[in-house]
Write a structure and sequence with these properties.
One of its GO terms (molecular function) is carbon-nitrogen ligase activity, with glutamine as amido-N-donor. This is GatB/YqeY domain-containing protein. InterPro entries: Asn/Gln_tRNA_amidoTrase-B-like (IPR003789), GatB_Yqey_C_2 (IPR023168), YqeY/Aim41 (IPR019004), YqeY/Aim41_N (IPR042184). The protein folds into two domains: about 80 residues, Uncharacterised protein YqeY/AIM41, N-terminal domain (Hypothetical Protein Yqey, Chain: A, domain1, Orthogonal Bundle); about 50 residues, Arc Repressor Mutant, subunit A (Orthogonal Bundle), CATH 1.10.10. The termini are far apart. The protein has seven helices and no strands. The longest helix has 24 residues. α3 runs antiparallel to α4. It has about 150 residues and is an all-alpha fold.
């Protein structure tokens, strides 16, 4: 089942169950996917879909941080709820141990030894963990291992 089919199915279920907030988030995600497809001029691949979902998650995380800094708990709660719904469509996230193994293996493959090799390592790690790990988390882990 493709992501759009799953979204359509979940949208129908949310309508039946009168889950207004869930329905709104699903519609936003679906709209983002359709807008990306229009922009590309072709159907989205699975990687493209993961990119859109990851972008949506990143936007929500950034907003959440801003709302917490501004003491807007009402908006922070709503954003956390949206974040949970969107993340349910992403593949299962890697544990810290699994991510660390991938980072160490990639550092050895690339032959990185210092912070100056950060770009090489990141460009090799990110395709391996696409949609399964947050980029900032990967960045911190790579930085720790290169120091």
């Amino acid at each position: 089942m493709t992501l759009l089919e799953r979204l359509n199915q979940d949208m129908k279920q949310a309508l039946k169950n009168k889950e207004k907030d869930r329905l709104t988030v699903i519609r936003m995600v679906k709209s983002s996917l359709q807008n990306e497809a229009i922009k590309k001029g072709e159907e989205l691949s699975e990687d493209d879909e993961m990119q859109v979902l990851t972008r949506e998650v990143k936007q929500r995380k950034d907003s959440l941080q801003e709302f917490k800094n501004a003491n807007r708990e009402d908006l922070a709660g709503k954003t956390e709820q949206e974040l949970e719904i969107i993340q349910s469509y992403l593949p299962e996230q890697l544990s810290d141990e699994e991510l660390e193994q991938i980072v160490i293996k990639t550092i050895n493959e690339v032959g990185a030894s210092s912070k100056s090799d950060m770009g090489k390592v990141m460009s090799a790690v990110m395709p391996k963990v696409k949609g399964q790990a947050d980029g900032s988390k990967v960045n911190k882990m790579v930085l720790n291992h290169l120091q």
